[in-house]
Amino acid sequence: MPELPEVETIVRALRNGGRGDASILHRRIQSVDLRWARTLASSEAGEFERRLIGQEINDVARRGKYVVIHLDGEFLLIHLRMSGDLRVETPPLAPPSTHDRLIISFTDGTRLVFNDTRKFGRVWLTKDMNSVTGSLGPEPFDSGLSPEIFFHNLHSKKKYIKSLLLDQSFLAGLGNIYVDESLHRANIHPLRPSNSLSPDESGRLLEAIRKTLTDGINNNGASIDWVYRGGDFQNNFRVYQQTGKPCLVCGTPIERIVSGQRGTHFCPRCQPKGVVV
Length: 277
Hints:
- The chain has 2 domains: 4-133, N-terminal domain of MutM-like DNA repair proteins; 147-266, Helicase, Ruva Protein, domain 3, CATH 1.10.8.
- It is 25% helix and 20% strand.
- It has 7 helices and 10 strands.
- A 4-stranded antiparallel beta sheet has the order 1-6-7-5, with helices on one face. Strands 2-3-4-8 form a 4-stranded antiparallel beta sheet. It has a two-stranded antiparallel sheet with strand order 9-10.
- A hairpin with a 4-residue loop joins β3 and β4.
- α1 packs across α7 (199-218), α4 (147-155) crosses α7 (199-218) and α6 (176-185) crosses α7 (199-218).
- The longest helix is centred in the C-terminal third of the chain and has 20 residues, at 199-218.
- The radius of gyration is 20 Å and the shape is elongated.
- It starts with a helix and ends in an 11-residue tail after the last strand.
């Protein structure tokens, strides 16, 4: 957490305004307060602050789970990891909170704050975005990712489908929530080998991933703990964290197993482990 829909919601709010926050577009940076040095993944603190001051926010986008802020010839990338969040504050400003790790103040008195309780989040400032995101796989909504290509990609690997979909070098942006939800929608067991899926199953899975992510985005993501603000998708979970509850499709109790050290939720009836002919 956050995953693609949560990050996309944050990006849209930063770009257009939302979640109770103002847009940061076309604001110019006046000062930088790096309050925890290890938040910074690239360059030294002094260089980071010097390079940021005076730059304007030209756009805000997303790549995988990264927030990508377009500056004047550089990119500020933020990965929220487990507990990160971004908020925009307008005057009158309150004192910084305990877990605020980076505060970027603009010339109009507004500021962008990166808050991260668990300190796992990281920030990069780079002229070459690819140096940070180059290892990521395609975006789930990439128009070039056809069912045929997706089938080929699945069969080029031999991993449990749950583990493969969590691999950011295979497909960017998915996490535990949206993988479990997508596999249930596609009627595919999480421990099926990726190269066992038929063309029909792989096409169904790609469609399910896109539909699940779209539903997540339309609901502003999922708020399942105190970290992420304002999402409603948790009210539409089919299997994630629904252990013991009846499947919405067939009524069978949802089960939980551990796969690759990740809690995994599925319906044993809708998602049989064997290959369905």
